[in-house]
TrEMBL record, chain A:
Intracellular or extracellular location(s): Endomembrane system
GO MF annotation list: clathrin binding
Main subcellular location: membrane
UniProt keyword Transport present: yes
Similarity remark: Belongs to the adaptor complexes large subunit family.
Residue span, Clathrin/coatomer adaptor adaptin-like N-terminal domain: 16-533
GO terms under biological process: intracellular protein transport; vesicle-mediated transport
GO cellular component terms, semicolon-separated: endomembrane system; membrane coat
Pfam families assigned: Adaptin_N (PF01602)
Functional description taken from the UniProt entry: Adaptins are components of the adaptor complexes which link clathrin to receptors in coated vesicles. Clathrin-associated protein complexes are believed to interact with the cytoplasmic tails of membrane proteins, leading to their selection and concentration.
Name of the protein in its database record: AP complex subunit beta
UniProtKB/TrEMBL annotation, chain B:
Species the sequence originates in: Tuber melanosporum (strain Mel28)
Bilayer-crossing regions: none
Subcellular location: Endomembrane system
The keyword S-adenosyl-L-methionine is assigned to this record: no
Protein name as it appears in the record: (Perigord truffle) hypothetical protein
Domain of life of the native organism: Eukaryota
SUPFAM superfamilies xrefs: Second domain of Mu2 adaptin subunit (ap50) of ap2 adaptor, SNARE-like
Lineage: Eukaryota, Fungi, Dikarya, Ascomycota, Pezizomycotina
An example Gene Ontology biological process: vesicle-mediated transport
Length: 725, 528
């Protein structure tokens, strides 16, 4: 306390007098004064003060029979060994002497401190003591020496190899004491990571056996190391994998959550190769420990939730019976609530959906706006995930709309739009939606409602009036809403030709009053389309849209597989490869690009239909080039897309992570139609329509919904890559 | 490779930004303690236990836990297992408490820097956590000795002058059992078992349980000489057995054990814990029991809690009041207690006299109800309660109900809510902005609605809004807290506890054994 007070009085530099006092104390002729001075020095050091100036005086006190004092001196040395290694070299002789002390604690301290001195010169002195301590009779000394080998390797790998320390360390995996085994494995793992070429920790069947033996006996931290090693090990055959799983499963019952999660990781990774029946058994066994993790302290909870989220993306049915564990509590921090929601949707199925829905409805009535929105969205995701529950979900959404809470209504409408995109037959609720028309002020909600009106124009008697009300503020609308309005107007006209006035008004304002080229261009395309042949327009605009299959966000397969290998680490918490957020070197743009390209290539390989559709797309693009500005050579298009393509890739992949509508292949037809259309129609489009503008228009044209345009974007990216390689 | 890099401890009340303790296991980190602290403070509350700081170079992940106003920070700059670090921090706290005495205070750390530094060095070597068992640590680091202090005060000499042969030197033969130190000697051989359960539940307005879990901890305080071998048999009441399903768990839901427990024995005979205990206090096992039978909350026998709450909101003339009615009754606990007494567990049933409730007569204590208030609430008016006292502080009302030993009955609290004035707060402002005024008026004028009609519509709308506002100002749930001594929600009990073997404990010595049960409300939420 006193030290702290003094410190706060002189916050900048340690008081000169203080160091002086300590020095006097250290050189005192009385043993007890010296010892107290050492104590005080340690205190100052622990406070974070620099007492390295006292080094020579401390060293004088090193040669003492008093064990306590010796330990304290060693504490001092240890601290400065890390930060001022050059000073510690002065004490080397004492280290060497002490490494042969009869007391194992002293021997261990000596070798540990030596390992911390990161100066080349120390290496020569270290050889002999290290060799001895590695063979020491006391396990306490041996385990300390084992870690020391890793420290030495870091300093001078070749010397470590020449002296056979690495081999000794590998032999120590067979040590009789499990603590020694654990530390040897830790040290080997460290060496292996620093220099994979040494194959320091090559797991052979013999070593595997030893590891599994030690697993049940060593400390919890040792278990984590062994489990991590086991997780990285690729089992030679099914039998071995089964054996590993069997031996690791008891670790689920460890009190340390880190051990539990590491064990889950091992079993999960080795489960891939074992038989389906056993696999199911292990999945069942995995549920209780995960549940326990979720209901432990908050810091464990969040990590557990993030990891569970990953596991569920691979194995969605691990926790279907445990829905209740994930119910949000009033006191949960917001990030935990959102994570729980996401998990609940993932484990929703026909059996537990009722339970989930009543819970979600409860959340939707809370006050926290973000959470409420997320809950409403979750109801929609449920409806789209579980066919049989759609009716119930729609009812809940209607009830929520009846609350007239502004943001609830808006979110509900956005969600209902998605439901319409998958399930026909809920047109009955449209009047209900239109009632809240005045309340909507968010572009997403307005756009969604307009889309619904356009899509079901034939069933809504006053569709033209409704659109008219939106038209009044057309100029002030968000682009997204304007585009929807445009498409909805065209749909309305195609379905009810008597409402020509509306569509004309829309097209008129879009072409003459709008500054946004996207909107103008789309309006022109529509206009031309309609004036040419309404039947063709119908087959394009009113074509069947591919139904959406899921609105639940998932990680791309490649990334997911990578992260599953990283369960229980930081990467699994942030759902990103570790290199992207920690580490010295920044994760360069190159790497990001490379990863994105690999991923797209992978997609192209897995999905030949899509790729071929994309190839068609390229044809179309070329044709368009020729048609629109005949002078431009077709080959230009093979060059120009390259930079643009990569760019769109980079932009595309995060966007897809953010909101992946499942890629569909049905849109190819639309494009073909368009292709033929433009083929016959050789009239150049009116002023200033750029290629990109037309393309953007096409996207919206074919799909009618802003979200659905993503697959096409993706295809474009695919195609560009195919062109690249 | 995962390594704990450093540990900094701050006094979270002190304005100073300097740590009261800093210990670096690896080389000196690039970002110093003070700047870490200010970055930590810059984060909005509630702060997650793992904070990502991308602005430092290299980027840092900051692990943090708060214990008794002490803030423990540990930075990481490379990939590491987050649970490992947070668990390690908890262990550091436990060990320091064990050595320096609970509660752990900044001043205690400051007074014992030499011990703390030794401990931190032993617990983690080169960033790898290693010895975290208090028993194993006692073999290598001496606790601040009472003996030394006593002698020091008598002789007037500083403690250091006492010859080290006086104080027990760390044993040269280190214990072979990692969790038990060698040469344990006690004059009184005693064994205390505390089973503590925390109930986490969500209760629907109807009183039906949406979820109910009980997480139990079997805490041990073992003061036995030598190396005793113990056998404890647990029993879960029969009515829980079928719903707990898995027989191998022995009715303990999903247990996790201290490493000393022989897992194979448990596997063969569920319910039997065979172990050589560590010396002193430790947690033998913990378990989770789902109080609702498998998956179907409707058909289940509902779990009985001694305290139940009924919350009515939006009542009164302006529908601006809410009322909570609390029922406290130990009667529902009786059946469980009876079955317990029907199986008397022999001479061990003697309990420490300081302990109030017995399993035959459980008592409810520390009943308090917390109502979290939404941000729109300005103040409360006319609050009255039939028992106990209430306290309105910030955005929550805490109502404490005193209970005497045999109290059972009801208590009510009723209060009016005053909402913040219009536009005076954020969420209302948003709601106002949400109505696009320009457009709304356009529609009004475009429509054929007369002036009167418009007014009525306006009025209805205003009323609706007012009602809505009132609804938004009502508490959405009540958080219930209580503790019951002598009763366990899950019905688990200790059937027997025996010393079955080992050495060092004299032949005729009969250790004193005490068992107590305690159930606490961990997080019980009653919705309305």
């Amino acid at each position: 306390m006193a030290a702290n007070r003094i410190r706060s009085m002189f916050p900048v530099a340690p008081r000169k007098g203080e160091t002086f006092e300590l020095r006097t104390g250290l050189n005192s002729q009385f043993a007890h004064e010296r010892k107290d001075a050492i104590r005080n020095t340690i205190a100052a050091m622990t406070l974070g003060k620099d007492v390295s100036a006292l080094f020579p005086d401390i060293i004088k006190n090193m040669a003492t029979g008093d064990l306590d004092q010796k330990k304290l001196v060693y504490l001092y040395l240890m601290n400065y060994a890390k930060t001022h290694p050059d000073l510690c070299i002065l004490a080397v002789n004492t280290f060497v002497q002490d490494s042969e002390d009869p007391n194992p604690l002293i021997r261990a301290l000596a070798i540990r401190t030596m390992g911390c001195i990161r100066v080349d010169k120390i290496v020569d002195y270290m050889e002999e003591p290290l060799r001895k301590t590695l063979k020491d009779e006391s396990p306490y000394v041996r385990k300390t020496a084992a870690i020391c080998v890793a420290k030495l390797f870091d300093l001078n790998p070749s010397l470590c190899l020449e002296n056979g320390f690495l081999t000794t360390l590998q032999e120590m995996i067979g040590d009789s004491n499990p603590m020694v085994v654990a530390n040897s494995v830790t040290a080997l793992a460290e060496i292996n990571e620093a220099a994979p070429e040494t194959e320091a920790l090559a797991v052979t069947p013999a070593i595997l056996k030893k590891l599994l033996m030690a697993l049940n006996e060593c400390t919890e931290w040792g278990r984590i190391t062994i489990l991590t090693t086991l997780a990285e090990y690729k089992a030679a055959d099914v039998k071995e994998a089964e054996h590993i799983c069997e031996r690791v499963v008891p670790q689920f019952q460890h009190v340390n959550p880190s051990v539990v999660l590491a064990a889950v990781k091992v079993v999960f990774l080795h489960m891939k190769v074992i038989s389906a029946e056993l696999c199911r058994q292990y999945l069942r066994k995995m549920a209780p420990p995960l549940v326990t993790l979720v209901s432990s302290q908050p810091e464990v909870q969040y990590v557990a939730l993030r990891n569970i989220n990953l596991l569920l993306q691979k194995q969605p049915d691990i926790l279907t019976k445990e829905m209740r564990v994930f119910f949000c509590k009033y006191n949960d921090p917001p990030y935990v609530k959102l994570e729980k929601l996401e998990i609940m949707i993932r484990i929703a199925n026909e059996k537990n959906v009722d339970q989930l829905l009543s819970e979600l409805k409860e959340y939707a009535l809370e006050v926290d706006m973000d959470f409420v929105r997320r809950a409403v969205r979750a109801i929609g995701q449920c409806a789209i995930k579980i066919d049989s529950a759609t009716g119930k979900c729609v009812n809940v959404l209607l009830e929520l709309i009846n609350t007239k809470v502004n943001y609830v209504v808006q979110e509900a409408i956005v969600v209902i739009k998605d439901i319409f995109r998958k399930y026909p037959g809920y047109e009955g609720i449209i009047p209900k939606l239109c009632e809240s028309l005045d309340e909507l002020d968010e572009p997403n909600a307005r756009g969604s409602l307009i889309w619904v009106i356009g899509e079901y124009a034939e069933k809504i008697n006053n569709a033209d009036e409704l659109l008219q009300t939106f038209m009044e503020g057309f100029k002030d609308e968000y682009t997204q809403v304007q585009l929807q309005l445009l498409t909805a107007g065209v749909k309305l006209f195609l379905k009810k030709p008597q409402s020509q006035a509306v569509v004309q008004q829309i097209l008129q304002s879009a072409t003459s009053e709008c500054d946004n080229p996207d909107i103008r261009d789309r309006a022109y395309v529509y206009w031309r389309l309609l004036s040419k042949d309404p039947e063709v327009a119908k087959s394009i605009v009113l074509s069947d849209k591919p139904p959406i299959t899921s609105t639940i966000q998932s990680l791309p397969v490649g990334l997911l597989e990578e992260l599953l290998g990283e369960i229980s680490t930081l990467a699994s918490v942030y759902h990103k490869p570790a290199a992207t957020f920690v580490g010295q070197g920044s994760f360069g743009a190159d790497a990001v690009q490379k990863r994105a390209i690999e991923e797209q290539l992978q997609n192209a390989r897995e999905n030949p239909i899509q790729a071929s559709a994309a190839a068609k797309g390229q044809n179309m693009e070329n044709l368009l080039d020729i048609d629109f500005d005949g002078a431009a050579p077709a080959s230009a298009s093979t060059q120009t897309p390259q930079p643009g393509g990569l760019e769109s890739l980079v932009i595309d992949s995060p966007a897809r992570v953010a909101s992946p509508t499942s890629p569909t292949s049905g849109t190819g037809n639309n494009l073909d139609d368009l292709l033929s259309l433009f083929g016959t129609e050789s009239v150049a489009p009116a002023n200033g329509s750029t290629n990109s503008g037309v393309l953007a228009g096409l996207e919206g044209l074919g799909l009618g919904s802003q979200a659905a345009s993503q697959p096409q974007l993706q295809k474009k990216a695919n195609e560009d890559i195919l062109g690249l390689f | 490779m995962s390594a704990v890099e450093a540990l900094y401890v701050f006094d979270s009340f002190s304005p100073a930004t300097t740590p009261i303790l800093q210990h670096e296991w690896r080389s000196r980190p690039a970002t110093n303690a003070a700047s870490l602290y200010s970055l930590y403070k810059a984060q909005p509350s509630p702060r997650p236990s793992l904070i990502y700081l991308p602005t430092t170079s290299p980027p840092i992940l900051l692990f943090n836990i708060i214990h008794n106003n002490l803030l423990f920070l540990s930075p990481a700059t490379s990939e590491i297992e987050p649970l490992l670090v947070s668990e390690f921090l908890h262990r550091v706290v436990n060990v320091l408490e064990d050595y320096l005495g609970s509660p752990l205070l900044g001043s205690k750390i400051e007074a014992n820097y030499d011990i703390v530094a030794q401990l931190l060095n032993e617990m983690c070597d080169d960033g790898f956590p290693f010895t975290t068992e208090p028993n194993a640590l006692r073999d290598v680091v001496l606790p601040p000795s009472l003996m030394g202090k006593l002698l020091g005060s008598v002789t007037g000499l500083p403690s250091a002058s006492i010859p080290s042969s006086f104080t027990p030197s760390p044993t040269r033969t280190l214990s072979t059992i990692p969790w038990r130190r060698s040469n344990v000697r006690h004059t009184n051989n005693e064994l205390y078992v505390d089973i503590i359960e925390l109930i986490t539940a969500t209760i629907a307005p109807s009183g039906r349980f949406l979820s109910a879990r009980s997480s139990g901890t079997i805490a041990f305080n073992c003061k036995l000489s030598g190396i005793p071998d113990l056998l404890m048999t647990l029993q879960a009441p029969t009515n829980h057995k079928q719903k707990l399903g898995a027989p191998p768990s022995g009715g303990l839901g999903f247990p996790v054990f201290h490493p000393c427990v022989r897992l194979s024995r448990w596997k063969e005979r569920p319910g039997e814990l065979s172990f050589v205990p560590p010396d002193g206090k430790f947690v033998l096992a913990s378990y989770e029991i789902d109080l609702l039978p498998s998956g179907n909350p409707k058909s289940a026998i509902q779990p009985q809690l001694p305290v139940s709450v009924e919350l009515k909101s939006a009542i009164g003339p302006q529908s601006s009041e809410f009322e909570a009615r609390v029922f406290i009754s130990t009667a529902s606990l009786a059946p469980t207690a009876n079955t317990l007494s029907a199986n008397p567990f022999g001479p061990r049933s003697s309990r420490s006299p300081a302990f109030g409730g017995s399993s035959n007569n459980p008592t409810v204590e520390e009943v308090s109800i917390i109502f979290p208030l939404p941000p729109t609430v300005k103040t409360l008016t006319g609050t009255r309660c039939s028992r106990g006292e209430f306290q309105h502080e910030g955005r929550r009302v805490t109502w404490k109900i005193p209970t005497t030993s045999a109290f059972s009955g009801t208590a009510t609290l009723r209060t009016g809510v005053v909402v913040k004035s219009y536009g005076g707060d954020e969420s209302e402002g948003e709601e106002e902005a949400a109505v696009d005024n320009g457009e709304y008026q356009d529609v009004q004028t475009a429509g054929t609605a007369g002036v009167n009609g418009g007014n009525e519509e306006e009025k209805a709308k205003r009323e609706r809004q007012a009602k809505r506002k009132m609804e938004m100002a009502m508490p959405r749930c009540a958080l219930v807290a209580f503790s019951v001594k002598g009763w366990l929600a899950s019905g688990v009990k200790v059937d027997s506890l025996k010393v079955v073997g080992g050495k060092g404990l004299g032949e005729g010595v009969k250790p004193y054994k005490g068992v107590k049960y305690l159930t606490k409300a961990g997080d019980i939420e009653v919705r309305c």
